[in-house]
């Protein structure tokens, strides 16, 4: 049996294994010959005959396979190297961009040293400047060796002595921007030498917005906004988050960078980032580690401005707001202004009360489709009551203080905002009301006319009295333009039976005055007043085209209700399409965008 044979004769197999070696010796391997190993002598035959040292050749030591942790760490190290290279590349690009913008700025920023130099020769002067430049670089590089406060102070003295114009720009911000959009507390943000180090993005945004009003240096504004856009993109890609970053995005949303096309407008991006960051920072909740009362008020003020911006944008776009109507701070903000020593916070609280009612109308609008006109009339009456209440509060709070033109402007501005929101609500009801109910005596028509006139009258009065009209926010030009376009649309032949001749003449007069006022306050061709002025001029021109001599002023089938197709073919040129529009705010914004994209020349020149 095989098993017995293998068990009876184990020695031949063992001897055969012992007589062989796994590998040839080093000498035989070098000669590439067969190595015959003599097991009893422990040496191979060739080494024995040649009296060589028989060194067995062992198997090469293989490098052990890396573990999962080692591979992961190697990957992380490569990621860090790539990130460092990309950071260097971004730094080089930013440095080149800065050099380009500075070279384009001309002589606005003085390049003279901060202290007078008395060197007798040009060579000595150059050596002294080079020495000072090296000193500044060494101060910036000494992160750990030089005390932080001393290093910052020395760099600030050098910087502000070299560029004193930035101090004027920041002062202009608190003179011409902050009173009308009081997002920042002057006690916390008025020191530019501290702000540039603690909040560089916010500092850049403030400089960009304030530079719009520097009439002596119009070339500065686009360059400052270029820096602001780069800072906004960098903060977004770096994942920077903080109260100052949130405020900077909100500031750019309210005072957006100039753009050549409406499609390039990015207000909604800045607004969305600011609101989302405010939610992540939990600005609507009491801070856990901040005990400074002014800082707590600063957080609350920022949150309330985000709530206002969200509500305004939702009304303009015909969408629901991002923030809930049940927000605790917004619901209980009626008395919040009493806790703050910033005098303009009272207008923020009043605006929130109006926007809360408007947001409720937007939420419940689709639940009242069958009774939309009574529902909108009720909302209009309630907003009027809220406006009257806060007007009384303004008189009581400010009555004991000396008259201030800014407070008068802000109080009338709240009435303008309320009238604009009422017009947006009434315009929606007027658009969707049954045609047979729209008569010359219809209440919805009279209220819509009154609210549109109120917006225009307040704005025109502001343009005549005081220097504050050009400093208002860009959104207010939208309010004024929407009210004017609403009235111009009522001049269509389709609605000729709704208006008296005197009313039509008054509308034409108001429209021309609005166009003249917006053209007068426009800083440049890219400013919002210039944009809306051009749109209204085109709209008025298109209206006049329908009143040529020999034309029937009221064709029976050409002008139908805007949501019903015409019964006969009509021309579809720019003039016709611009003139046939509905009365909603959403369609108004779409019309501006459509007109700009179909002109031969861009809307912004």
From TrEMBL:
InterPro entries: prtT, XnlR_reg_dom, Zn2-C6_fun-type_DNA-bd_sf, Zn2Cys6_DnaBD
Cellular component GO terms, alphabetical: nucleus
Any one Pfam family match given in the protein's UniProt record, by short name: Fungal_trans
Domain Zn(2)-C6 fungal-type: start-end pairs: 24-54
Transmembrane segments: none
Signal peptide start-end: none
Species classification: Eukaryota, Fungi, Dikarya, Basidiomycota, Agaricomycotina
One Gene Ontology MF term: DNA-binding transcription factor activity, RNA polymerase II-specific
Record localization: Nucleus
Gene Ontology biological-process entries: DNA-templated transcription
Keywords: DNA-binding, Metal-binding, Nucleus, Transcription, Transcription regulation
Record protein name field: Zn(2)-C6 fungal-type domain-containing protein
Primary localization class, coarse: nucleus
